[in-house]
Structure formats: structure tokens, C-alpha cells
Design a protein that fits this description.
There is one protein chain. α1 (4-14) packs across α2 and α6 runs parallel beside α7. The strands form three sheets. The protein has a seven-stranded mixed beta sheet, sandwiched between helices. It has a two-stranded antiparallel sheet with strand order 1-2. The protein contains twelve helices and eleven strands. By secondary structure, the chain is of the alpha/beta class. It starts with a strand and ends with a strand. The longest helix has 16 residues, at 21-36. The chain folds into two domains: 2-65; 88-276, 3-Layer(aba) Sandwich (Rossmann fold), CATH 3.40.50.
Length: 278
């Protein structure tokens, strides 16, 4: 038996990732919380805990290979809920919560909006919207394995979402919707060399990289398809790479969207673009 503060210190001291102290401590806090139910209060009060040292060693070894802590734990928190994640799906980012929050605000005055999430991955956007808004939510993805994780998350969280296998680059949207949302792949192949190993070596490349050299391909195709699939007054919402905000706004305007707006996240980076079909 050891006390939780000593365990926390051991984990922090043995993690040798090229990250700052705050990031390493956040990984350690997550590990202790999810694996041994030890909160920060428990650590501060040095609560006694019994752990298997071999298990501790195994977790630390995996962390030191740059495997994301979310994949090691098999879950991550998003919009106040726990979502199962595997290497088949992109890890939901806190920044994406801004997208969900703004859509919730926008749809308050819309009765039972029909919503489509393009490239749903873990289902975090679609499921959060289905649980927060009285709505009819559909979600599509090109990956069958991702859809299995998304359906599992929806079932566990009691969310009603219709999931379908679809390649948005090859197939049109055949139903009508009031709102379409997407956090598509937007990293170019040239940017690979600047990416951290925990992302590049573990997260699904189909969810990270646009095919070829055109980082904006998905935005162009989704904007074209959304224009045909949205009801009058409907809106299209994108999460974006802040470096492409201007270009994505132009893509939306060129495809008939008006009153196109860019929203910044809490780090001051342009993170969301949305517009409406008039």
C-alpha cells in the first residue's frame, strides 16, 4: 500500500515526454482518476491506496511511447460526458466544445431541427447535440469502425442518433436538414513533419489529413453538398484550422452561404465558421 501523493509523484517523475510540467501532471491526474478513482483531493490528502506495481509500470511505459492517455484509458470527457475512444476515432478536443455550444445557442428557437454531422468519428458532436437539443440527429462517417464506436457511445449515453456509412467525397446528401455540422480532416500532407508523435503515430490519418495536397477539399465538397441538402434558412457549421479561416469563409460564400461568421475559441484562435442559406 502507498499513499496517493507518492503514487502521483512517481508517475510524474517517470514520464519522460518532451512536454511541460503542467501537461505531464495533467496526464498523471487523468491516469490516477480514471484507473484508481483518485481525485486531486485524494492526492492532496495523501489517501492510502493499493496498486499493482506491474500495472503502474505498464501504463507509464505506454505513456512514454507517446500513446495518447485517452487511448490508454479508452475514454475521454467531452461536453460533460465520457466518450469511449480507440485508435479508430479522433480524440475529441476541448476546442470542439465551442462548436457544440454555439449550435445549441443557435437552435434554441428552432423546433425539432434536423441535424447532420458529417465525419462523426466518436459521435461526440452528434450525441452531444442529440442530448442537449430536442432534435432529429443523423451522422455519417467513411469508417465502419468509427461508426461502431459512435453507436456504442450513443447507446451508453442514451442518445438517439441515426448513423450511416457514407463517403461524403463520393456520395451526395440525399435528405434535407436544417443544420449540417462537420469537423473534417484539414491537415495537409506537408504539415506532417511538424506534428507531435502522439497525434501522428496513433490517431487515424483519415480523420486528420485531407487526401492529396488540398487541405480544404472537404470544406469545398461539404459546402457544395450542404447547399443542396439544407432547408431554406438552414445553416452549415465547420470547425476549422485557424490558418484557413479566410479561405473557408470564401468557400462558403462561393457556395451560396450568407452572413458567414467566424468565431474564436478561448485561446483567441479562429475555430468555427458558420453561415446560412437564405
Amino acid at each position: 500500500m502507498t499513499n496517493s501523493k507518492e503514487l502521483f509523484s512517481e508517475v510524474v517523475n517517470r514520464i519522460n515526454l518532451p512536454e511541460d510540467k503542467a501537461e505531464i501532471e495533467s496526464i498523471a491526474y487523468l491516469l490516477l482518476d480514471k484507473k484508481w478513482n483518485l481525485t486531486r483531493t485524494h492526492i492532496l490528502t495523501q489517501k492510502q491506496v493499493t496498486v499493482n506495481q506491474t500495472e503502474v509500470d505498464a501504463y507509464i511505459n505506454r505513456i512514454n511511447t507517446h500513446e495518447p492517455i485517452q487511448y490508454i484509458l479508452g475514454e475521454t470527457d467531452f461536453f460533460g460526458r465520457s466518450f469511449r475512444v480507440t485508435p479508430d476515432v479522433l480524440i475529441p478536443r476541448p476546442e470542439t466544445e465551442l462548436l457544440v455550444h454555439e449550435i445549441i445557442r443557435h437552435t434554441k428557437s428552432i423546433n425539432q431541427p434536423a441535424i447532420l454531422d458529417v465525419g462523426t468519428g466518436s459521435g461526440c458532436i452528434a450525441i452531444s447535440l442529440a442530448l442537449e437539443i430536442p432534435s432529429v440527429v443523423h451522422a455519417i462517417d467513411v469508417s465502419l469502425n468509427a461508426l461502431k464506436i459512435a453507436q456504442e457511445n450513443a447507446t451508453r449515453l442514451n442518445a438517439t442518433v441515426t448513423f450511416n456509412l457514407q463517403d461524403i467525397l463520393k456520395e451526395p446528401i440525399t435528405q434535407k436538414f436544417d443544420l449540417i455540422v462537420s469537423n473534417p480532416p484539414y491537415i495537409s500532407q506537408q504539415e506532417k513533419q511538424n506534428m507531435k508523435p502522439n497525434v501522428l503515430n496513433y490517431e487515424p490519418h483519415t480523420a486528420l489529413f485531407a487526401p492529396g495536397e488540398n487541405a480544404l477539399l472537404f470544406y469545398k465538397v461539404i459546402a457544395q453538398r450542404a447547399h443542396q441538402a439544407l432547408n431554406p434558412g438552414g445553416s452549415l457549421w465547420f470547425e476549422i484550422n485557424e490558418h484557413y479561416a479566410k479561405e473557408i469563409c470564401e468557400i462558403m460564400k462561393a457556395n451560396g452561404f450568407e452572413a458567414v461568421i467566424t468565431l474564436k475559441d478561448w485561446n483567441g484562435k479562429e475555430r468555427v465558421v458558420w453561415g446560412r442559406i437564405i
